[in-house]
Design a protein that fits this description.
The chain is an all-alpha fold. It has one domain.
Length: 55
């Protein structure tokens, strides 16, 4: 999980540089999983992604 957490943090840190809205689904895909899988396997990462996507 540490690798996925680090990757998600990098994706979130890059959000201000994105020209399009980044969704939870996009963040999950960047981690190589679906958003449903992210929610089931890594609920704390899914919550972090959800918060970042709403901001």
């Amino acid at each position: 999980m540490a690798a996925q957490g680090a990757r998600l943090e990098a994706v979130i840190a890059d959000l201000p540089n994105q020209t399009e809205r980044v969704t939870i689904e996009k963040m999950a895909a960047d981690l190589g999983v679906t958003s449903a899988c992210l929610s089931q396997i890594y609920p704390e990462l899914a919550a972090l992604a959800g918060t970042a996507a709403r901001e």
